[in-house]
Design brief:
Blueprint (H helix, E strand, L loop, with lengths): L23 E6 L3 H17 L7 E6 L5 H9 L6 E9 L5 H20 L3 E8 L2 H6 L1 E3 L2 E2 H13 L2
Parallel strand pairs: 1-2, 1-3, 3-4
Antiparallel strand pairs: 5-6
Bound molecules: ligand DLZ.
Ligand DLZ binds next to strand 3 and helix 3.
Length: about 160
């Protein structure tokens, strides 16, 4: 998987099971939507490349990353959804807002995953700068959305 020296989107696919009948919910934050759009595209393309059907991928937006948890819960509670992918970008600013949002999302989506016994992957890019975020959204460090989709497929193959 990811290391600081590798492209972050390198992942192991040899153990992936068939996902052609699986249904995915993607929840995307609207903050930094130029970047979250690229991450979402990476996630969708990865699901399609591995055999998911376009009509089985549901994309919903939430205002900001803080709302990813409830968005994930709305999706995970749907019986037909097999896995959820959360996509957001939180860039550090002058205050500690990023810590609060990042921790809330990490804990929140973990709880959703355990509550509904479904994979809920963490496609939240948490960086110090805009440049670092761009590097992880189709730049030199790959695409974190690809990685989040791969994690969801990986967990469905568990
Ligand atoms: C308020 C806020 C700030 C300052 N920064 C970000 C950010 O970098 N990325 C992001 O996705 N959302 C941010 N938000 C919005 C919060 O996630 C949330 O939407 C609002 O606090 C309303 O609950």
């Amino acid at each position: 998987m990811a290391t600081s020296l590798k492209n972050l989107s390198d992942y192991k696919k040899d153990k992936f099971k068939d996902i052609s009948e699986k249904t995915f919910g993607i929840v995307v934050a609207e903050w930094h939507d130029d970047i979250t759009g690229v991450l979402c595209e990476g996630a969708v393309n990865t699901l399609l490349e591995h055999g998911a059907k376009k009509e089985n991928i549901y994309i919903n937006t939430v205002p900001g990353s803080f709302e990813l948890t409830l968005g994930a819960q709305f999706l995970a509670m749907q019986e037909e959804i097999d896995a959820v992918i959360c996509i957001g970008v939180v860039i550090k600013g002058d205050t500690k807002h990023d810590d609060y949002i990042n921790n809330a999302v990490a804990n929140g989506i973990t709880n959703v995953s355990l509550k509904f016994n479904k994979p809920v992957s963490f496609g939240l890019v948490t960086t110090n700068t805009l440049e670092q975020a761009l590097d992880r959204a189709g730049g030199k460090h790959g695409n974190k959305g690809v990685e989040a989709a791969a994690a969801a497929i990986g967990m469905l193959s568990f």
